[in-house]
Write a structure and sequence with these properties.
There is one protein chain. By secondary structure, the protein is an alpha/beta fold. It is built from nine helices and eleven strands. The protein has an eight-stranded mixed sheet with strand order 1-11-10-9-5-6-7-8, with helices on one face. Strands 3-2-4 form a three-stranded parallel sheet, with helices on both faces. Helix 2 crosses helix 9. It is globular, with a radius of gyration of 20 Å.
Length: 341
């Protein structure tokens, strides 16, 4: 069973390590065929970036993957990335941001070879994600890569059975109402799009406004659309939401517990605690952090891009999925597109 803390019996606390452990099994099985090399670049003094690099290296070692941390000057980072792009010994590349803290960081994301981009930040991957295009090829053997943190939240919701596996593949969040508090381009907005593309009604909330991400009535649209909700705020969205996902930076924000639905599922992806301790009195499930799942998802992305490069030879569409999960191949519903995470 999932790990719990000393909480009231009405609320179960799910630790990120529990979810990560279940995903590690898939990685171990896939490594019977390949042991790829992940090269990471650290070109800043951000303590959070250093911690993320250390965690990634530790997790790689625990799961039998090769990891190499290269610390470089930020002015030389571009040339180091370009060299890694053409190095046949390098299977995947990750850069720990921020580097410059401006559009130059976006440029660095785009010069990373798409076939080695384990973070899923290349334009082609981002375009596919928003357009609900789930494969890179017509044969549907090479899967598009998704950004790690949004995908980590998806994997947690899958673990919690928020995804309804009885429904057709690609529509398994139909009937769910979800609020995502954070609309950053890194996590919040991509996450809202992913959840809406899988059928959920998603309220995307930031400091300025509320947007509704939806595939329309009866999820008849192929991809999500965005509808402005003027005058709406947390007071309007929270009581409607089965799942509450929050990632607001800083320690001053707290999700108003009084507005939560009884039995809501609450997930925190901020480095700060967006939920007060009283959340356990109202939530049915609470996930206080997702860091360990994010790193495991990064490693799964690494395996995926290696398998994608091998093409038909390694059957990438089946390599790291378990039967019964959201990733298992399923008949495609008319009007939907298969998206195996």
């Amino acid at each position: 069973m999932a790990a719990t803390q000393n909480t009231p019996t009405s609320c179960k606390v799910i630790l990120a390590g529990t979810v990560a452990k279940s995903l590690s099994v898939e990685i171990s099985e896939a490594l019977q065929q390949v042991a790829p090399l992940l090269v990471s670049f650290l070109a800043n003094t951000d303590p959070a970036a250093r911690m993320y690099a250390d965690w990634t290296g530790k997790t790689c070692k625990e799961n039998g993957l090769r990891f190499e941390l290269r610390e470089v000057d930020r002015e030389e980072l571009e040339q180091h990335v370009l060299a890694a792009n053409i190095d046949d010994l390098v299977d995947g590349i990750i850069i720990y941001y921020p580097i410059f803290g401006n559009r130059q960081d976006q440029y660095l994301q785009q010069i990373t070879d798409v076939s080695k981009d384990v973070e899923g930040l290349s334009h082609r991957y981002i375009f596919n994600m928003y357009q609900n295009i789930r494969f890179l090829d017509k044969e549907k053997l090479q899967k598009s890569i998704l950004p790690c943190t949004p995908l980590a939240v998806v994997k947690i919701l899958e673990y919690l059975r928020i995804y309804n596996t009885i429904l057709p593949y690609g529509n398994r969040l139909f009937g769910r109402s979800i609020i995502v508090i954070n609309r950053s381009e890194v996590v919040g907005r991509p996450l809202a799009a992913l959840l809406a593309n899988d059928g959920a009604t998603v309220y995307s909330v930031d400091v300025n406004n509320v947007q509704l991400f939806t595939r329309g009535e009866g999820i008849k649209n192929r991809r999500h659309e965005v509808i402005e909700k003027p005058e709406w705020g947390l007071k309007d969205c929270l009581p409607l939401s089965d799942v509450v996902i929050s990632g607001v930076p800083g320690d001053s924000f707290k999700v108003p517990t009084g507005l939560l639905r009884d039995g809501a599922v609450c997930v925190n992806f901020s480095s700060e605690k967006n939920f007060g301790p009283e959340v356990k009195e109202k939530a049915s499930i609470y996930v206080p952090a997702i860091g360990k799942v994010t790193i495991i998802v990064l490693l799964r992305n690494l395996l995926r891009i290696v398998q994608n490069r091998k093409g038909l030879e390694s059957q990438p569409a089946k390599a790291v999925e378990k039967p019964g999960t959201i990733e298992e191949a399923a008949p495609q519903r008319k009007g939907s597109i298969e998206y195996n995470f």
